[in-house]
């Protein structure tokens, strides 16, 4: 009798393929007569290309085409409607206009990747240069759109009789005010963006590319190429990291596909690592201002959080990158959040892991640490004193919230009680050491309009299909686990099929929502296919139950029982001559109304700071997360570890310097843009509470069905590790040194001069 795999430590089913190099990523696919493209990018941020010299490139070995705007025959068009929200708002290689430094201005197609690259290096351009707008302090500004949770970008809640947030702050016993500046950060996914486009005729194309929202990506491609949406088949089987960089349809895939159509051969385009820094998005640079007003014992009276981030001119839709935890995290009678965007001539930016909450979390949770010091209240106790049981912006309760338990369990695991609250009070040789903590919160949005199919086969295996992509998170394994649980059969009898837009439309791998969007669909499709199995059993020739009533049958663990007989589904299907039966999930409604949905967590961190060099090193880290039902304990832990590493990078290492005069992202290589390596990361202690959230994802039906439902109640965990973890590091740096750094990353130079 199979135990349900839900909640166990399950190896990812594609793990062996990946570590042996057998998994095919987008750049690994081949096609007969494959040609290779390479992009040439702009060296100005705003203006026009006035001319190209392409003679040397044309004369270079193996070159088939050199495409330059505006005189090239590539057929590319505008995106509209929903697809426009997931694409840039200019048509690549269509006009002479340059919108940002590092934009594609020409493309070489050649017989080999090396020939294309070498010829691309020979293309030169002349420009008519204009002064770019590059700083978030620049005008004009526009209000940001709503946050991913649906929360508005500007919101004021005031207690009765209070006129303004400033008045609420002025009336508070203790006020903490802080300004934060953060430079551009990058996703730095391991797999470079790569695309292979292969046409049948000139109106049907198969595209291999990494995409987080395959359906939107394919729709955008169809619009860009001017062909019907069903004529684009997007295959995205294995992806080496998304983090938001594969949400948008950037310029690379449309250009490769258009070049392939024009050439009449398949074309592959792989971006260089340097090109990824300007062509595939980044986290906005921003300024934030947080003001907290509280009583002498630390009870909040007012929270104000304002920010200014980027609105690149090429993006019609961007994130609201700051306050989206300040409008939800703490109980406060007076609340003001406001997000503005500065319209800038810089590379396109959109989402990056915890797009609103990671920057906002650093600011809010740093300010909370300052409030703890100002009031003399322990940081954990301060957060418990301001614990919200309803959302401060909507007054709705949470569907499930155990953040208080995260604080208590985390403090216990970490050994928080032994802490010295006095900054710079612990020294070990040349190292000052200290501890800090912070809170994590991330919205759990369930999106609708997606589907899963479950097929029962006559060999007693089942296929679970959905067009979602697995970014490396373990999504494919989640599909197999929930399928095995729903059907009550071992995982080895489940074949998950994902990553292809010719499958049923899969839930997006964004906003930490893929698991809780997909699992209920798997359960529902399994329930439907079990009902269909019973229908087949009572109607088809060859079935021992032909003519019986379906309600006499019971499905359990892959076997149909009833009227004194039992048969596996495979035997029954074979007996009636059916190779397999397939059913799709029913449309899934919104979650039960009247609740807000978030995941939560508490981070605890120890750092050591070298007294002589100012180098900060994270030496211990504990995260306790409240993420609903845990489907795969192993992959879930990996997601949280990865998120925390993102936060450590944010706190200590990561920034790209945007040169204000030129609009150039100055350190756009992995040699100059520092990300954490193994030696920077200690063993990270992760604990998940494993408390299901059925108000978000189920229960389905009336509970009398024969389908397994243990995988319901999950909530997102891809981004929660990233939120607040940078603040925990910064707060620990302060505890170690007495130095408060508001402008990340906390590099040695910022500490050195004060040590
Ligand atoms: Mo995410 S930043 O929704 O990929």
Automatic annotation (TrEMBL):
Q: Which UniProt keywords apply?
A: Molybdenum, Oxidoreductase
Aldehyde oxidase/xanthine dehydrogenase a/b hammerhead domain sequence ranges:
20-131
Which InterPro entries does the entry link to? Answer: Ald_Oxase/Xan_DH_a/b, Ald_Oxase/Xan_DH_a/b_sf, Ald_Oxase/xanthine_DH-like, AldOxase/xan_DH_MoCoBD1, AldOxase/xan_DH_MoCoBD2, AldOxase/xan_DH_Mopterin-bd_sf
Query: At the top level of its lineage, which domain of life is listed?
Result: Bacteria
User: Looking at the keywords, is Oxidoreductase present?
Assistant: yes
Keyword Oxidoreductase in the entry? The reply is yes
SUPFAM superfamilies per UniProt: CO dehydrogenase molybdoprotein N-domain-like (SSF54665), Molybdenum cofactor-binding domain (SSF56003)
Q: What is this protein called?
A: Xanthine dehydrogenase family protein molybdopterin-binding subunit
